[in-house]
Amino acid sequence: MIDIFEDNGHLLFRYESSGFYAVDPSSIDRNLKEKGEVTFNRIFTFEANAVLDDLDQHTFSEDTRTFVLGVDDGIFYRVDRKILGLKHDLRILKGMGIDKSTFVARRDISIFRKIDALIDEPIVIGGDSENAIPVEDFEELLRNFPTSTELTHYSGARITRVLKDYFGTISDAQKKLDDYLNKRKSIKLPSRVEFVREYEPLKFEYIREELSEMLKNADEYTEKDWQNLIVSFLLLIFPKYVAVLQKLRVKDSYSDPQKTKYREIDLTLVDANGSIDIVEIKKPFARCLLSTGKYRDNYTPKKELSGSVMQAEKYIFHLSKWGRDGELHIVQKRKSELPPDFEINITNPKAMILIGRDSDFTGQQKFDFEIIKRKYANIIDIITYDDLLRRLDNIISMIDSNYAKLGNGDKKT
User: Fold this and answer.
1) C-alpha closest to that of 65 among 13, 6, 8
2) Are 173 and 118 in contact (CB under 8 A)?
3) 213 and 94, same structural domain?
4) Residue 379: which domain range?
5) CB distance 266 to 246 below 8 Å
6) Exposure pattern of 148-186 as b/e (b: 16+ CB <10 Å)?
7) How confident is the model at residue 169 (pLDDT cuts 50, 70, 90)?
8) Model pTM?
9) d(CA 369, CA 280)
């Protein structure tokens, strides 16, 4: 049995030989003497000098061995990189409630080794440094650490979503997960989508119900399937749009003055007048909008949000600069996806970003998030999935109210 605990300025690791598969303490001593080190659970490797000399206060017995896992380093415990097999020493905040689960996931998976494989800089848990992972976010990572057979891909994607706000060297683990999920059978659009087009009072209830169910199992969808489903709902919610153009290539004459490049916009919407807008649909990852800690008493945008806004602004910039040539180019290339004799107008394009959840926001977080949204409101509409659900609730409520005003409280079907 393994126990990890804090004591007198040290983070200690104690092994107690108990159970059918327990390691005989004599073999531990032998490995330390002959090899100079001993490894537990394929995660913790201690050299002979890590054995704790003073065992009087640690219920020493013939069946236990205690090692120094972390040493005093100011407000942190510093864990030598060789103990956990990391590229850098680990620093972990004192007093945050450290135990075995901080280091080991089910099936003896090393949590910090998984993180270390995705980054090329030291791991710091807690504290005020820029690249430190807040304790609250780290605990959220532990609660969501995968235990299924898709651990290799799935854990990388989940960990990346937490870590990318604190490290600049994250690998593209989400793409690997999507590639893995893409091999499975694609999710078909619900056949009821066509049905609800004919029944205005019912379609918003349908969308509300479908979206609520999707949000419960969002991780089961690939990015592409999620976008396709959500955009089909947006066309029903915002009927002014008559066409969806996927993977629209837009001319970029500014990134490299020596060479014309093209940027690819995942989704654009075209309204009945031919005006073109951009829509960015992100999967609803938790805590991707605002920082968990405050900067000068303010909650600031996380990279997922600020990066999405910056991306949308660049798309708008390049689309606007393309002008009339761009309008003709789009009509020529995407004619089959547009109504007959249709013209495209690139006139003050706007963007809609559907991203994240806000149901657990505090009062100040809601206030700060509203300020961020209003900053970009003239060109970008930032909508959370909870906000979209609230909008649907308001629409449904108004439909019921309008029926009542017409003297027909019962909906017609």
Assistant:
1) 13
2) yes
3) no
4) 192-404
5) yes
6) eeebebbbbbbbbbbbbbbbeebeebbebbbeebeeeee
7) low
8) 0.63
9) 18
Residue 27's pLDDT is 86
Alpha carbons 391 and 386: distance in angstroms, whole number = 9
State residue 135's pLDDT score.
Answer: 92
pLDDT tens figures, 18-68: 655 566 778 888 889 899 999 998 999 999 988 886 544 544 467 788 999
Is a pLDDT exceeding 90 seen at residue 128?
no
Q: Which residues are bridge partners to 16 per DSSP? A: 64
**Does 125 lie in the same domain as 10?**
yes
Q: With beta carbons less than 8 A apart as the criterion, state whether 252 and 318 touch.
A: yes
Tell me how far apart the alpha carbons of residues 380 and 88 are, in angstroms, rounded to a whole number. Answer: 41
Contact between 190 and 184 (Cβ < 8 Å): no
Same domain, 19 and 150: yes
Element (H, E) at 138: helix 135-143
| Both tokens assigned to 197 | 């087009």
